[in-house]
Amino acid sequence: MNNLYSELLKIDLTLEELAFLESEMLKKSKSKEAAWGLWAGLSFFGAHRFFTEDYKYASAMLGTTFIPLAILIYMLFDYYYNEPLFYFSLFLLIGSVIWSWIDAFFLNRRMIQLNETIEQNILNQIQQNRNHKKRQNL
Fold first, then answer.
1. Phi, psi (5° rounding) for residue 81?
2. Cα angle for residues 106, 53, 114 (degrees, 5° grid)
3. What is the pLDDT of residue 3?
4. What's the rounded Cα separation, in Å, for the pair 116 and 122?
5. pTM of model > 0.85
6. How far apart, in whole angstroms, are the C-alpha atoms of residue 105 and residue 111?
7. What is the band of 7 on the pLDDT scale with cuts at 50, 70, 90?
8. Which has more confidence, 60 or 13?
9. pLDDT for the residue 64
10. Closest CA to 52 of 112, 121, 124
C-alpha cells in the first residue's frame, strides 16, 4: 500500500521535483552491499543493524556479544574461573552468533523497507514544499 501511494505521488511530480527526489535518494539511501559487508564482518556486534538505523536491536546485539566476550577475556587473563558465569557467557555468545545468522535472512527486506521510508519522507517533503508555494501564491 505504501509503495503504491509513493508511485502515485511520483506520477504527479514535475521534472524539477523528480530531479530533487533522485538527488536526495542518492544522498540518503542505504546500500545493500554496505549492509552485507557490515553483516559479514561485524554482524555479532550489530553493525548492520546500526547501519539500518535499528538502534534498539543493534544495542542488544552489541551487548550480547561485548559483555560476555569481556567476561571471558577477564577470566582468561586474570585466571579467575567461575563455572556458571563462564557457561552463561558462552551461552550468550552462541546466542549472538545464531541471532546474527537468522538476521541475515531478513537483511534485504529491511534494506528495502528503509529505502522506501526514506523515499516516502522525501516525497512528503516535496508535497509540503508544493503546499507552501500554493499558500504563498494565494
1. -125, 120
2. 55
3. 65
4. 10
5. no
6. 12
7. low
8. 60
9. 92
10. 112
Distance CA 101, CA 107 (A): 10
**Residue 87: its H or E element:** helix 83-104
Tell me if 119 sits within 8 A of 21, measured CB to CB.
Answer: yes
Measure the CA dihedral 100/105/107/109, to 10°. -150
The one-letter amino acid at 8 = L
Taking only the tens place, the pLDDT of each residue in 83-125 is 888 889 999 999 999 999 999 999 999 999 999 999 999 998 9
- Helix 55-78 to helix 83-104 angle (10° resolution) is 140
Tell me the torsion sign for CA atoms 16, 20, 25, 27. Answer: positive
Which triple of cell numbers denotes residue 69? 566476550
> How far, in whole angstroms, is CA 38 from its chain's centroid?
11
User: How many other C-beta atoms can be found within 10 angstroms of the C-beta atom of residue 50?
Assistant: 17
